[in-house]
Amino acid sequence: MKLQNLLPFTNWLFRYERKNLGGDITAGLIVTVMLIPQSLAYAMLAGLPPEYGLYASIVPLFVYGLLGSSRVLSVGPVAVISLMTATALAPFAEPFSEQYIKLALLLAIMTGVIQLVLGAFRAGFVANLLSHPVVAGFITGSSILIVISQLKHIFGVQAAAGHLPYEAVISLAQALPGTNWVTLAMGASAIALLVLMRSPLRKLLKRVGLSEGAAQLVSRIGPALLVLAGMGAIFFFGLDARFGVKVVGEFPTGLPGLTLPSLDLPVIGALVPAALAIVLAGYVESVSVGRSLGAKRRQTIEPNQELLALGAANVASGFTGGFPVTGGFSRSVVNYDAGANTGLASLITAALIAAIALFLAPMFASLPQVVLAATVIVAVAGLVNFKELLRLWRYSKADGALMGVTILAVLGLGVEIGIGVGVGASLLAYIARSSRPHIAVVGRLAGSEHFRNVKRHAVETFPGLLLVRIDESLFFANTRNIVDRLTRQVAEQPELRHIVLIFSAVNSVDASALEALESLAHTLRGLGITLHLAEVKGPVMDRFDKVGFTQHLAPGRVFLSTQRAVQALRGSPPISTRAA
Amino acid sequence: MKLQNLLPFTNWLFRYERKNLGGDITAGLIVTVMLIPQSLAYAMLAGLPPEYGLYASIVPLFVYGLLGSSRVLSVGPVAVISLMTATALAPFAEPFSEQYIKLALLLAIMTGVIQLVLGAFRAGFVANLLSHPVVAGFITGSSILIVISQLKHIFGVQAAAGHLPYEAVISLAQALPGTNWVTLAMGASAIALLVLMRSPLRKLLKRVGLSEGAAQLVSRIGPALLVLAGMGAIFFFGLDARFGVKVVGEFPTGLPGLTLPSLDLPVIGALVPAALAIVLAGYVESVSVGRSLGAKRRQTIEPNQELLALGAANVASGFTGGFPVTGGFSRSVVNYDAGANTGLASLITAALIAAIALFLAPMFASLPQVVLAATVIVAVAGLVNFKELLRLWRYSKADGALMGVTILAVLGLGVEIGIGVGVGASLLAYIARSSRPHIAVVGRLAGSEHFRNVKRHAVETFPGLLLVRIDESLFFANTRNIVDRLTRQVAEQPELRHIVLIFSAVNSVDASALEALESLAHTLRGLGITLHLAEVKGPVMDRFDKVGFTQHLAPGRVFLSTQRAVQALRGSPPISTRAA
């Protein structure tokens, strides 16, 4: 049973049902057609020769297809991870150089190893670190950066990527006077056609009588047709030689061999933050799309198994000429819609891409870069979403600010630092919120053994005795606040002799809170005040006993009930009665 | 009133009470005697010429004395911040070089600016980021590193600091064959004498008839006497010229002028993480000692004002030849014990150090470095605390592991990364814990309108209707888990038609949770299941209305009570009754 969870393919491969085959083959074919231009474009976005995009779309797909807990996720190169790869490697080597390629392999392996370790420790919850505003801000910000990175291809100019995003913009602006007008015309037409092919064309085809399925199919293979048209234009009109339109150029035919990454220890150390950011971004993209598609068919996905499967896919990618991969959003949706039923769809795609790398690679030599850039731009531009920023702001200023900060950090400092800033800001906001726990000074309802908040009920209080109910578990981020509030009470009430903390709602006390309680007891003792506890739960008391906390509390005591504490500690009959 | 809080000296300076004067003068004097060797030693630990230690002990003390909300905190150079300064600056310049000094000034100003900004935004809660195990691990780890950094002076050898701690150890080991035996003999005796002077001497003096106060005084000025003895030995026996014992050497007499920091933008960017780590470490040391001393006199300290005061002190330090400072633990305790009543004690210390810089600086030329190193070692060695590691482990494996990880990270990767690892690990542990919120499937107590956990009570449930009570506020780190658990329930119960989430304990719903609820409603709708809410609190409902959440929920409804939801949704009379 457990092995079955670790090797999900055992659930479908050995008892493959014939009825699934049609959907799997269709989906495998359609995703292949979509993946060809994407894989080439994303490789070049990552700063790698185009064939590496194909390599990253063979073995990783195969590995994920077998090990993934989602049956419809389409793993492979995706835009944002490719951009992050480029940003991470830029300081260490020249894009497209041999050293750069080795570092890309290394980064894929590092990413994979981190994912495997997280998966082994069942740390799938790390995805929770990314709140919705941070993910939304990250997607909008990085999509804008990806569009910017492609504009040089649209204008047909040379421009540097730069260390920080604004440098790329400056470099592009400086290069604009050298615009290649033929390239720009091709780029503009390609973008226009791609936009038309998305939704208007589908509607038109349906109006002229095509079925929904056929119309969708045409709209999906549109980008591939455009790629073919672009190659034709270069081939027949010689646009590259005559007008200087940049083409992908020839690249080696064949399958990737076993590749070995660079093993430079200081560089590995320096790449750790980038690898962590890629792990986080890739995992979140993968799991969120896997979840939403899985839920539609009542299939659950297992976050920790996903980490293991993505980790294995990335390690495999690093050893077979690939770069970091993850489950892509748009491709997975297409895979699902086209009818993928099992991981076989991914295996089919992998086999087809391998066949293309083996036999059709020479075709792509005349593929114009501007067409690839147009494909990328149209794919990511739809992800820019400022409406969400407005909606979040309306819902809650804090969440809106979080998305805004993440967008600005991504645009100003790059994707990797941007995601770090976003995560840091949301954690800070969360800690800030949870560092003010609810506590209540309580008194006794006259004639009963019930104790209630003095602010809300008419209750009796006792001179020299302060009863405080703690309404949350105590841990490092909230205990300091409680101690501060108690200290203030003490400073205001010089007649105080006993403080009783009522622990009825305290389920756990971590070591920081324990330490704070000990030092509070010590401080109060110096002021002639004794600290007591009441209604401490069993598991909490067990821990206290392990470190002899009651001795630190002495002469303070632990009372079974608040009532008993009052009976033991009240010096005189109640003198005051308050009401709200 | 508010201005008084921002300028705390207005509370004591203009209405200074004569009775406070004696204590303030005594404390000012004793702290000065203690500060002289410390300031010289910490400057050299930070990689700066000794006079910078004096400079950092003049204006910053003055500024904090006026602005600090603690009346007894002694601000100035401290060991761990000096070590962090050295680690931060090592990659950018040669220690003791002019460029290095400019960077130290810059780092002080950056630290100060960050503190001022945090203070202005009232972000004193950031101290909560450091849990007790992380602080304890940080102190033990960094104290070991400080001892290691001083060993070269004890052996009288040259050794490099290294980028990572292990490099310093290797460098020291390689240099040991060149040990200067005279230096080592002086170092060993100095350490032995200092250890004796701490507690054994005090006990002895009391036994021979001295009063507690007098015995304590002797024990406190012991290190200063040792410094005098060391200078005497050099001066009279010429140990430096004859045996190569290293001395501090001559340094300029006089007060610091207005100094200007280096303003190299990329370097500023690269120093940000170090500055943040120094802010965190310095603030925590300062506030924790300030709090514990303040509480003894029923004086509270104001965390945000402390950030402002420390920030101003650091900015002042950067412009008057200093380096990053904070409130030191041991000096503050001495200040308190010696009777400091107001900030005047700090002003006196500052004035005395200024006088020494002006008139006595030449004296220190013959101060042996080995004696300073012995002072530092004895001061910090007492902070190494492995017993606490055991105690924490006994109390809770998680907290013990946290301290262990922090020690290892500090020793393996240095103080700055170490503190980051510790903070990151405790946040992760916290998020992991709070990402599994308590939810309960509930049913109705027969014949009543009360709903209780089906696992604990004999209650009626309703076919096709799932009632789930959410027991915590919803936010980004815990909602995913709830959605996953609900999705699993749905996969197991194909007959399900309605799910009602009971929000009676939900005080807030952040944007991430809102998004998760929307997509849950959407997913369930696709499966023919309708999601409803019940008992939503007023403030939560207000927010929902702002973004039209009820439309996303439709046809799902929001019910005032669970009872009404059941009445509206139950298709048929209850058929099953469960009990635990």
- Quaternary state of this entry equals homodimer
Low-confidence stretches of chain A: 572-580
Mean pLDDT of chain A: 87
What is the helix fraction of residues of chain A, given as a range?
A: 55-70%
**How many individual helices of chain A?**
25
Structural class category of chain A: alpha/beta
Tell me the Rg of chain A in angstroms: 31 Å
Structure summary, number of beta strands of chain A = 10
Give the count of structural domains of chain A.
2
The most extensive interface between chains reads: A-B, 58 and 59 residues
Shape summary of chain A: elongated
Question: Percent of residues of chain A in beta strands?
Answer: 5-15%
Précis, in short:
2 copies of one chain form a homodimer. Chain A is of the alpha/beta class.
What report would you give on this structure?
- The structure is a homodimer of 580-residue chains.
- By secondary structure, chain A is α/β, with parallel strands linked by helices.
- The first copy, chain A, folds into two domains: 387 residues, no CATH class; 140 residues, Transcription Regulator spoIIAA, CATH 3.30.750.
- Chain A is 62% helix and 7% strand.
- The first copy, chain A, is built from 25 helices and ten strands.
- In chain A, strands 3, 4, 5, 6, 7, 8, 9 and 10 form an eight-stranded mixed sheet that branches. A two-stranded antiparallel ribbon of chain A has the order 1-2.
- In chain A, helix 6 crosses helix 13 and helix 7 packs parallel to helix 19.
- The longest helix of chain A is centred in the middle third of the chain and has 32 residues.
- The first copy, chain A, is elongated and about 105 Å long.
- The C terminus of chain A is likely disordered.
- Chains A and B meet through helix 13, helix 18, helix 19, helix 20 and helix 21 of A and helix 13, helix 18, helix 19, helix 20 and helix 21 of B.
